[in-house]
Amino acid sequence: MADVTALAASVFGFALRPSQRSAAEAVTGGRDTLAVLPTGSGKSAIYQVAGLAREGVTVVVSPLIALQRDQVRSLSGLGLRAVLLNSSLHAAQRAEVLATIRAGETDFVMLGPEQLANDETLRELTGTPRPITLVAVDEAHLVSEWGHDFRPEYLRLADVIDAFGRPPVLALTATAAPPVQADITRQLRMREPQIIVADFDRPGITLAVRRTRHGLPEDQAIDDRTVEVVLAHQTPALVYALTHARCESLAERLRLDSYRVAAYHAGMPAAERGRVQDGFFAGTIEIVVATSAFGMGIDKPDVRTVVHAGVPGSLDEYYQEIGRAGRDGEPANAILVYDPRTVRIPRLLAARSRIAAGTIHAVVDVLESRSGRVTYQELAEASFVSKHMVERVVAELLELDALEADGHDAVLIPKRLPRTTFASVAEAGDRHQAVLTSRIDAARHYAETTRCRRAELLGYFGEHYEAPCGTCDNDNTAAAAPSGMSAPELPGGVGVHHRLWGPGTLLSRDEHELTAVFASVGYRHLTPAVLANGVLTID
Question: What is the DSSP string of 265-324?
Answer without folding.
Answer: -TTS-HHHHHHHHHHHHHTS--EEEE-TTS-TT---TT--EEEEES--S-HHHHHHHHTT
